[in-house]
Amino acid sequence: MEKLKVFLDSNVVFSAAYSEKGKSRSYLFFELQNLNIIKIYISNLVKFESIHNIKIKKPEKLDFLNELLSKADIIEDVDVYYEFAKNLPENDRIILSSAVYHDIDFFITGNTKDFLTFYNKKLKNTLILTPKDFLELTFEK
Q1: Which residues form the PIN domain (predicted)?
Q2: Which of 27, 76, 79, 132 could bond 16 through an S-S bridge, CB–CB 3.0 to 4.6 Å?
Q3: Which burial class, exposed, middle or buried, applies to 11 when counting CB atoms under 10 A from its CB (0-12, 13-18, 19+)?
């Protein structure tokens, strides 16, 4: 079975690092990767945002965050113009367009403020879901 390609937005990576192991839904993505069910992808911008936010909010988790980041494949940030993403804030637009451009199966974000209208929609080949929705979809099978 081919692994699902899953792109994690910075808020999901941050949440996985911020919480204790096993106490965050976001951390389950790294467990699923350990089980060879998914392959995690992030971009350099996601890495930068995650490190920036953890340094501000919970610097003692920086080593754990770096451990998680080392388990993800980093794809190139691209700022491709997609009509559907034109009204997103710049960083969100770049992060989403990077996942879509690189043909990732799932874009996982907890950012309901900016991505609410995108949830459960497929942009090209990339389905946008919350962490909860992805986990429910994956374990329904």
Answers
A1: 6-113
A2: 27
A3: buried
d(CA 49, CA 91): 9
How does pLDDT run across 77-87, given as a tens digit for each residue?
998 888 888 89
Q: Which residues, in sequence order, are bridge partners of residue 19? A: none
pLDDT in tens, 53-64: 999 999 999 999
Cβ proximity of 58 and 18 under 8 Å: yes
Domain ranges of the chain: 4-140
Task: Give 121's contacts (C-beta < 8 A, 6+ positions apart).
Answer: 127, 128
- What is the band of 22 on the pLDDT scale with cuts at 50, 70, 90? low
Adjacency order of strands within the sheet including 106-108:
73-75, 38-43, 4-8, 106-108, 126-129, 122-123
CATH class of 4-140: alpha beta
